[in-house]
Design a protein that fits this description.
ATP binding, about 20% strand, alpha+beta, eight-stranded mixed sheet, cell membrane, membrane, five-stranded antiparallel sheet, histidine kinase, single chain
Length: about 500
């Protein structure tokens, strides 16, 4: 029993077989019992009918004579049954056969009393001596109307009936054996169809437990096992994505630390060299202001790097809470354009603004909105010379579509998916004059998504770049104006 309980296949197989065997045995027993009872009852009723026919033939005879004996013999051969006549005292007066009893022998007094009372009897057990084989017996009164001369006993051998019952039981036994075999085959298939996918699920679960999420279970059934397999596959998919995300995050963390170390090491090394030269009076007094200016700019660069890292960490940890209010987009454009106008002019680049008629305010955090625009415009100025930068805004349903377009060097298709990564820099060979932290666009995307918006980029190398993002528009905050404005700064 312990061995059976360890395997679902065996438990299902033996459970089905035991249930089928028990059911067939119960049905066979009931069928055998009921059939035997039916045959016995039918035979007794038939004997009773035959006994009444015998009485009709001899009811006018009080004392049996040779003619009566011939009639009894005739009925014996016709009915295949032994027939006795006994008088009121219970003495046998005539029989159809002298092989079993002799005339003059007595029958059971209880049988005599029933007959004298005019009752018919179906005897369930032998009450007659001298019978050589088991028989079924019926007794009816012998006489006419209310006059009873004695009784008529009709016996029938049960040998044929027993053979029929035995044959029936053998048939039931064979049917039971065939049923058990069919049940075993069916139970084996059902058990196999259940246990096989469960074993596959078990193996997959073990592999998942060891960190292998690559395998999947292909079970097409629509039952509970199929649903379980689908759930296991979904779990494996989620665990695989989680594991990949974990590895990716770990790689990003390592890259982040390496990039921060690299970004800090370069200015620190330069500052250290310049300070050592100044400390050792290796630089002329006339050149010292130049080196002091370099050290100062490197310090600013480090401060920007630290601020950008702090902002990015806060964004990723959901530590920044937006203070939203209606923001005048045109006014913000003018402020940012004025801020970067001198730097753009040094590159012989103009900054233009364009807003459509009736442009609504943006519903945003003004400081963070300004930070988005400053990072995008600064990025455009950095890569555009002898060109133009356009700040454009239009309404689209309940959103504002804002674009920062330039005619700069553009971004290659391979780099367009990477520009949102931290510390990624498109022009790796640029001069220090245009150096940056590589975090600006990563911060821009986080801030736009924090506002519930989206941002995209379109660019062609040598043709320019367009950054387009969407922010919610403030309701009932529309500035009236004439035609759309175009202004150069």
């Amino acid at each position: 029993m312990l061995g059976i309980g360890k395997s679902i296949f065996r438990r299902l197989l033996f459970g089905h077989m035991f249930t089928m065997l028990l059911g067939l045995c119960v049905v066979g027993f009931l069928l055998s019992f009921l059939t035997k009872q039916y045959i016995v009852d039918s035979q007794k009723e038939e004997l009773l009918r035959k006994a009444k026919r015998v009485n009709l033939a001899v009811q006018t005879v009080v004392v049996p004579d040779d003619r009566v004996k011939e009639l009894l013999l005739f009925f014996d051969q016709t009915f295949d049954a032994r027939i006795w006549l006994f008088d009121r005292g219970g003495k046998i007066a005539a029989t159809s056969s002298k092989d079993e009893v002799y005339v003059g022998k007595s029958v059971d007094p209880a049988v005599v009393r029933m007959v004298l009372n005019g009752e018919e009897a179906l005897l369930n057990e032998p009450r007659f001596e001298g019978l050589k084989e088991p028989v079924l017996s019926v007794v009816v009164p012998w006489g006419k109307d209310n006059e009873v001369y004695g009784g008529i006993v009709v016996h029938a051998s049960v040998a044929g009936m027993n053979e029929t019952i035995t044959l029936m039981r053998e048939t039931i036994l064979w049917v039971t054996l065939v049923g058990v075999l069919l049940s075993a085959a069916t139970a084996s298939y059902l058990s196999w169809s259940i246990s096989r996918p469960l074993r596959r699920i078990d193996k997959l679960a073990l592999r998942i437990g060891h960190g292998d999420y690559g395998e999947r279970i292909d079970i097409s059934s629509n039952d509970e096992i199929g649903e379980l397999a689908a759930t296991i596959n979904q779990m494996a998919d989620k665990l695989q994505r989680t594991d990949e995300d974990k590895r990716k995050q770990e790689q990003i963390r390592q890259d982040f630390l390496a990039n921060v170390s690299h970004e800090l090491r370069t200015p620190l090394t330069a500052m250290q060299g310049f300070l050592e030269a100044l400390q050792d009076d290796l630089i002329d007094d006339a050149a010292k202001p130049k080196y002091y200016d370099i050290i100062y700019k490197e310090t600013l660069h480090m401060n920007r790097l630290v601020d950008d890292i702090a902002d990015l960490i806060k964004l990723e940890n959901d530590e920044i809470v937006l203070s939203r209010s209606p923001v005048d987009v045109r006014q913000l454009f003018a402020h940012v354009a004025a801020m970067f106008g001198p730097e753009a002019a040094e590159r012989n680049t103009s900054i233009e603004m364009r807003t459509e008629e009736g442009l609504p305010d943006a519903y945003a955090d003004r400081d963070r909105f300004e930070q988005i625009m400053k990072n995008l415009v600064k990025n455009a100025v950095k890569f555009t010379e002898n060109g133009k930068i356009l700040l454009d805004a239009r309404a689209e349903s309940e959103l504002l579509v804002i674009r920062v377009a330039d005619t700069g060097i553009g971004i290659s298709p391979d780099d367009q998916e990477m520009i949102w990564e931290r510390f990624f820099k498109v022009d790796r060979g640029r001069s220090k004059k245009s150096s940056g932290t590589g975090l600006g666009l990563a911060i821009v995307r986080e801030l736009v998504e924090l506002h519930g918006g989206t941002i995209t980029v379109r660019s062609e190398v040598g043709q320019g770049t367009v950054f387009e993002f969407r922010l919610p528009a403030a309701q009932n905050a529309i500035h009236e104006g004439g035609r759309q404005h175009v202004e150069a700064v």
